[in-house]
């Protein structure tokens, strides 16, 4: 199980850049050519394991870059030629100094990385993920959301908005009754329910697509499921409410696990990371393990790096550039850049109403970097972006997803 793999293993680059691989195959007319190496990072090895791993990798035409940590601990970026990996894993598994645990961490991670299509069962509906980019349309039933606060606080308006987004081509609607914007005030569960339940009840009757409840409170999630929601979007990744993991398991819904540093009140104060993607992957892996221990099936999990949640502009850009590393978790990847402040900053402090083109650029880039689902406010425009970006990704071959 990927969630419980030791050494926080993750693929940094797979054999050949997929686009490059497709191009070489096209030019040379030889699709089976080995076009590159795996680059896999393993953390918390013993120094002895890391040195031995390097020796074994060199013996298979690769190598390992070692990063010394405190005392006897070491991280390694392992490089193994793509066509040598099966043999290399056999040798590592049988090596007394390294052993089967490390071999399994590498094997399971590369296998998870290679998964490109998924099925998400949401009540009676099944979403095919990975064939084209899915859009999750946002319905904020709040007075204070950063992007559209107060516009849909009235249930009738929120229902209309949900119906509009569904008609524009949303694949999922995400309904939330508490803003998570930096510094937002917490909302009581009763008030959150009062906001979202009538909207979910009406939309469950009126639209044919799955409804997701955006909440960190188990009591709100439970009542939302009773009202017709069939997906959970928990920005605390099952760590905010101790009742949430068991509820998620019992209800059997797909669960979005999002990374956040700090809480919405504090997260933008001074976000700080050592290796950003290492910390995000380790955090999500830990939440996946919490989910698995509570009984959530592995095929119900979606991961999200949490754009803007305890992240500076530079962090958000780095996440988008390195998004592919999340593929090592073997789950669909959801990204929510829509109208966020970093886009405004890049556009010279553009207000939230003028961030659509920036959102489009970010969404297209995220798709080329492996996002399967985009959480967006402007579904009609982003449907066009996704259609065109998907066509370009397809040109690069199936491996590029
Ligand atoms: N972003 C927001 C809220 N929920 N959930 C996931 N999984 N990923 C995100 O990036 C994400 C999210 C913030 O956007 P919005 O809902 O428009 O604002 P607010 O939280 O102020 O209501």
CATH topology grouping of the largest domain: TIM Barrel
Bin the strand percentage. Answer: 15-25%
Q: Largest sheet, order of strands side by side? A: 12-11-10-9-8-7-14-13
CATH architecture of the largest domain: Alpha-Beta Barrel
Overall average pLDDT? 91
- pLDDT < 50 stretches: none
CATH homologous superfamily descriptor of the largest domain? Dihydropteroate synthase-like
- End-to-end gap: 22 Å
Which structural class matches the secondary elements?
alpha/beta
Distinct ligands, ions and cofactors found in the model: 6-hydroxymethylpterin-diphosphate
State the major sheet: 8 strands, parallel
| Radius of gyration using CA atoms only | 22 Å
SSE ordering: EHEHEEHHEEEHEHEHEHEHEHEHHEH
Number of domains: 2
**How many DSSP H or I helices?**
13
Extended strand count: 14
Q: Tell me the overall shape.
A: globular
Structure description:
With 401 residues, the chain is an alpha/beta fold. The chain has two domains: 2-113; 118-396, Alpha-Beta Barrel (TIM Barrel), CATH 3.20.20.20. Helices cover 40% and strands 18% of the residues. It is built from 13 helices and 14 strands. It has helices at residues 18-28, 47-59, 85-94, 100-114, 155-167, 189-206, 218-227, 244-251, 276-294, 313-321, 341-346, 356-368, 379-395; strands at residues 10-13, 37-46, 63-68, 73-81, 118-122, 125-129, 134-140, 172-176, 211-214, 231-234, 255-258, 301-304, 334-335, 373-376. Helix 5 links the parallel strand 7 and strand 8. The radius of gyration is 22 Å and the shape is globular. The mean pLDDT is 91. It binds 6-hydroxymethylpterin-diphosphate (HH2). 6-hydroxymethylpterin-diphosphate (HH2) is lined by residues 138, 140, 142, 145-147, 176, 179-181, 214, 233, 235, 256, 258, 304, 306-307, 334, 336, 375.
């Amino acid at each position: 199980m990927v969630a419980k793999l030791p050494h926080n293993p993750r693929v940094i680059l797979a054999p050949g850049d997929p686009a490059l691989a497709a191009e070489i195959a096209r030019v040379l007319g030889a699709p089976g050519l080995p076009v590159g190496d795996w680059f896999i990072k393993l953390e918390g090895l013993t120094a002895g394991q890391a040195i031995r791993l390097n020796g074994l990798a060199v013996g298979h035409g690769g190598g390992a870059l070692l990063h010394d940590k405190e005392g006897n601990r070491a991280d390694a970026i392992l490089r193994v030629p793509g066509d040598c990996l099966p043999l290399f894993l056999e040798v590592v598994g049988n090596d007394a100094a390294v052993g089967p645990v490390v071999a399994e961490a590498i094997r399971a991670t590369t296998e998870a990385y290679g998964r490109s299509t998924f099925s998400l069962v949401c009540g009676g509906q099944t979403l095919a993920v990975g064939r084209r980019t899915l859009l999750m349309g946002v319905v904020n039933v709040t007075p204070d959301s950063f992007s559209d606060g107060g516009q849909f606080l009235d249930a009738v308006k929120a229902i209309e908005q949900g119906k509009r987004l569904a008609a524009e081509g949303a694949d999922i609607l995400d309904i939330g009754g508490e803003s998570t914007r930096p510094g937002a005030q917490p909302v009581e569960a009763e008030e959150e329910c009062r906001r979202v339940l009538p909207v979910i009840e009406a939309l469950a009757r009126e639209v044919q697509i799955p409804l997701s409840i955006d909440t960190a409170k188990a009591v709100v999630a439970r009542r939302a499921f009773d009202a017709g929601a069939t997906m959970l979007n928990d920005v605390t990744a099952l760590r905010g409410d101790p009742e949430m993991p068991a509820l998620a398991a019992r209800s059997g819904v797909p669960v979005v696990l999002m990374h956040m540093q700090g809480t919405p009140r504090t997260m933008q104060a001074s976000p700080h990371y050592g290796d950003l993607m290492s910390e995000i992957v380790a955090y999500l892996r830990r939440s996946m393990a919490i989910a698995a221990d509570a009984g959530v099936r592995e095929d119900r999990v979606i991961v999200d790096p949490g754009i803007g949640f305890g992240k500076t502009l530079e962090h958000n850009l780095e996440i988008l550039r390195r998004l592919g590393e999340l593929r090592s978790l073997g789950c669909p990847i959801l990204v929510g850049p829509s109208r966020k402040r970093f886009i405004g900053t890049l556009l010279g402090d553009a207000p939230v109403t003028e961030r659509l083109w920036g959102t489009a650029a970010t969404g297209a880039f995220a798709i080329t970097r492996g996002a399967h689902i985009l959480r967006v406010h402007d579904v009609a425009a982003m449907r066009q972006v996704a259609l065109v970006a998907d066509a370009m990704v397809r040109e690069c071959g199936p491996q590029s997803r």
